[in-house]
Amino acid sequence: MTTVGGDIVIIGSGITAANMAAHLAEHTTRSIVVIEAGPASTPFAERTAARKRFLAYGENPWARDHLEDQNAFGVTYGFSPNMHVGGLAMHWGGVTPRYSPEDFITNSLYGIGTDWPYTYEDLDPFYQEAEERMGIAGEQGPPAMDPRGKPYPLPPIPVNYNLQQLQLWATQAGIASWSCPSAKATVPYQGRAQCQRCDTCYPVCPSGAKYSPDFTWDALVKSKRVTLVTGTLVRRLVADAKTGRIVRATGNRTDASGEEVTIEGQTFVLAAGFIWSPHLLLLSRDAAHPNGLANRSGLVGKYLAGHRNIGGQISLPLELYPGLNAQHSLVSKQFQRASYPGGKYLRHDLRLWESSVGRGARLRDDKGNLLLGDALLADWKQRAKGATARVRAYYDVLPHRESKFVLDDTRKNRWGDPMPLVTFKDAPESEALRPWQEEELRNLFRRMAKAGGGEVISLASNANDIGQEHPTGGCRAGNDPTTSVVDGWGRAHDHENLWVGGAPTQPSASCCNGTLTFVAVGLRTASAIAKSV
Ligand SMILES: Cc1cc2nc3c(=O)[nH]c(=O)nc-3n(C[C@H](O)[C@H](O)[C@H](O)COP(=O)(O)OP(=O)(O)OC[C@H]3O[C@@H](n4cnc5c(N)ncnc54)[C@H](O)[C@@H]3O)c2cc1C
Ligand code: SF4
Predict the structure, then answer these.
(1) Nearest in space to 427 (alpha carbons), one of 508, 528, 373
(2) Which atom of ligand 1 is found nearest the CA of 76?
(3) How far is the CA of 184 from the centre of ligand 2 (A)?
(4) What's the confidence (pLDDT) of residue 62?
(5) Does the CB atom of residue 200 touch ligand 2 within 6 A?
(6) What's the gap in Å between 185 CA and the centre of ligand 2?
(7) Cβ of residue 185 lying under 6 Å from some atom of ligand 2
(8) Euclidean distance between CA atoms 226 and 217, whole angstroms
(9) The pLDDT value given to residue 350
(10) What is the CA radius of gyration of the chain?
(11) 3-state secondary structure 351-405
(12) For burial by CB atoms within 10 Å, which of 148, 215, 312, 521 has the most?
């Protein structure tokens, strides 16, 4: 058996953990040890070669980023491609909008959902810190819709010719839009290369322009401020029956040895992401805590939240040049701040991209005649001249208390721990509004098409197969220990030296990409931990 330890033990090494560790390393003198279940993902130095093989042979450069028997059933992929250093964000898109101030006070404003135990203004400095640590490139939107304490650290990704045309179209439809914020270095930043807008971000950015957590881990390990223990799955937290203090964690090596590992520390930080953080709390049940740790409220693993979207394609009487930088987009937050006539509730973001849908080469013309050689090229040139816009609106879904996972005894890992089985569920008020909300979004896109003299090609409700995108919840934060798992700073109500960082603590999931907020929330927790140790 191996024993490892430090003053502060962080469990998980995803994007939230990386930024929390960086904050703690700068604001405390305590030793920090980070425990990660998986191995390191493809190292930066090997990314170009990995991408080449991906392009040439379709070989998956993420093949080793997953522990075969550690799966959260019922989430997007049906498996969990995140068990490695850096977690999911080793392969993310890097889109980083902030939530809007309304997200934190929907109950006060609209009598729906839950107010967070802190406000947008409280989170603003930590949003800024997250943006500076990750090097976010962004354009300030109209301040009334897009309030910020300070400017973005990096200049925005340019709004190219195609997006300029789409921006004019949006303006005709009465919509203010601007360059979508992204974790892509528009100027060289902290050793990362400048983004070349080459559009090959998936599955890996070969140049490192897109932020991924390995940059932070590599720097922290090199500085010797953090010890990163990989290949070690934490399976239990052990709490003192009388005081509730966490006295140690236990787990196993995930290599062939399966060796037992004991992790000692003074302060324990769960930063294992949505699902695995509450999963570990439930697995850690004991005689004094028969329902799992931190679970006086019975809410560990509940109120899982996320959002859905309506997306589509609209053809427009414009001339665009497909392929200028199709991964970049325009964003508007106008509808996150809207009022709701008749008391009906709908909040959503809005994103616009260029699209090549309907603009590709084809083998037969409209009459079914075969097109070959010059005829095919002439037809393609003609088709490429038009314009298609991709549109998408993520809308806010309020979670049911029983939006939850259960420990599924029929699916176990190699040590016999039951895996989570996730079932998202909308709160009744959200469920009742869904048909109206989705039709409103379709109507918005129809109105936009009309304003530009164009036509809707397709519109679809995308529930991401099984439910929700940018999932959060499972350890919701609140001031009342009977209705929440952690307090407003992320400290477990029931265990004074146990903290939960980021996504699991969020009471709701807003209506835009969530990772910037997960990191900002984690940084706010890290600032409280630094003061407490
Ligand atoms: C293809 C793709 C594109 C995406 N694009 C975007 C985007 O553009 N914008 C956006 O906002 N979001 C995006 N996301 C989502 C984003 O990547 C995640 O929200 C984010 O990475 C979650 O970070 P996290 O720190 O909360 O957790 P995770 O990334 O889940 O990290 C948790 C870590 O903890 C480890 N762990 C878990 N349990 C244990 C345990 N018991 N013991 C030890 N270690 C443990 C895991 O191995 C993992 O490394 C995308 C995701 C994918 C897959
Ligand atoms: S556009 Fe190219 S350089 Fe920029 S983040 Fe994507 S892959 Fe990296």
Answers:
(1) 508
(2) 53
(3) 7
(4) 72
(5) yes
(6) 9
(7) no
(8) 8
(9) 98
(10) 24
(11) EEEEECCCCCCCCECCCCCECCHHHHHHHHHHHHCCEEEEEEEEEEECECCCCEE
(12) 521
Give CA angle at 487 (522, 235), nearest 5°.
65
How remote is the CA of residue 188 from the centroid of ligand 2, in Å?
13
Torsion angle, CA of 289/291/295/299, rounded to 10 degrees? -170
Tell me which amino acid residue 310 is. Answer: I
Q: Measuring from atom 27 of ligand 1, which residue has the nearest CA?
A: 273
Ligand 2 near 183 CB (within 6 A): no
CA 403 / ligand 1 centre spacing (Å):
20
CB 30 within 8 A of CB 223: no
pLDDT at 338: 66
Using the mean position of ligand 2's atoms as its centre, give its distance from the Cα of residue 395 in Å: 28
325 CA from centroid of ligand 2 (Å): 10
* 3-class DSSP state of 219: helix
pLDDT the model gives residue 110: 86
Q: Ligand 1 centroid to 221 CA: how many Å?
A: 20
Nearest to 233 by CA among 408, 406, 55, 419: 419
pLDDT in tens, 371-391: 999 999 999 988 888 899 999
Considering the entire predicted model, what is its pTM?
0.96
Pocket flag, ligand 2, residue 48 (CB < 6 Å): no
Best mutation site among 69, 276, 351, 472 for ligand 1, i.e. most ligand atoms within 8 A of its Cβ? 276
Helix, strand, coil content of the chain in percent (nearest 5): 30, 25, 50
Ranges under pLDDT 50 in the chain: 465
Sheet strands side by side (includes 260-264): 2-5, 260-264, 246-253, 232-239
Which atom of ligand 1 approaches the CA of 519 most closely? Answer: 25
Structure confidence at residue 290 (pLDDT)? 97
pLDDT value of residue 464: 56
3-state secondary structure 255-290: CCCCCEEEEECCEEEECCCCCHHHHHHHHCCCCCCC
Structure tokens at 129: 């810190």
pLDDT value at residue 413: 95
Give a three-class secondary structure readout of 472-514. ECCCCECCCCCCCCECCCCEECCCCCEEECCHHHCCCCCCCCC
pLDDT on residue 420: 94
Per-residue confidence (pLDDT) for residue 271, from 0 to 100: 98
| Other beta carbons less than 10 A from residue 146's beta carbon | 22
Predicted local distance difference test score (pLDDT) of residue 65: 78
Q: Which atom of ligand 2 is found nearest the CA of 197?
A: 1
Burial class (CB in 10 A: 0-12, 13-18, 19+), 108: exposed
**Protein residue with least CA distance to atom 4, ligand 2:** 195
Contacts for 332 with CB less than 8 Å, ≥ 6 apart: 141, 145, 170, 175, 176, 177, 178, 349, 350, 352
Task: Find the 90 Cα to ligand 2 centroid distance in Å.
Answer: 14
